[in-house]
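Q: I'm writing up a methods section and want to include an example of the input and output format. Could you take the sequence below and give the corresponding predicted structure tokens, formatted cleanly so I can copy it straight into the document?
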Amino acid sequence: MTASARPDARRNASPYLYGLENAAVARVLEGGQYGHSDVTEELERRIADFLGVPEAVAVASGTAALHTALLAAGIGPGREVIVPSMTFCATVQAILAVGATPRFVDIDPATLCVTDQLLMDALTDKTAAVLPVLFGGRPIDLRAIQAELGQRNIAVIEDAAHAFGSRNGTRRIGAYGALTCFSFGPIKNLTCGQGGMVIPRTPVEADTIRPIRLLGVVQSQGERANTTSYRVEGFGLRYQLSAINAAIGQVQLESFQAAEDTRRHSKTSRR
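A: Here is the clean output for your methods example:
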């Protein structure tokens, strides 16, 4: 496998910074808690409030969000996950990581996203989940097939790596009942440097993902802060979001609404 390089390629990966990120990172460095900490959990609370949902679970990347969401939905070997053929490889890698089989479906060339009918046409007896990719932040309306998917016990897991802040009608992506996965990578419209977030559908899903993202440790950061021991009660991975990355995310979130309004005004002015 080869990769081409261009003299100006680094410009494509330049994040937008608001000027306060350095100070936020410095405060974490001075505080001495660099891993998953109360800073991480504060970002979770702020994201949940921003979206208007009960809970949000921070992880190390958008890929980690997809992987843990699939695990929380009970997807595993012998099952299929419907996924668009046009997507970043991370979407497929997460499916492979749980031992499931990706079943590719075409996209609508007008939107570059799957449609409800394309998903329905691809379902088989082995389908355990559909994983639409919200390409370019575009919402996908699955209301017409939601009841049938529910009757067939097929989970909807949204790859919303491009879509933090996007809306489906009046509600933001992540706020209308799907198991939603965000990426906060370097070039996303909200960046943590590297990071991700899962918006669970139920408290059970949240309680499943939290120990998985922290090597199976069940205590919260607050509970572990004053003890030298902790419990590990099951399978887990090192998928936690560091306080350093979370601090960047907090600054980005504080400015997100103003930046969104500016972009919307600029787009309206050009019409």
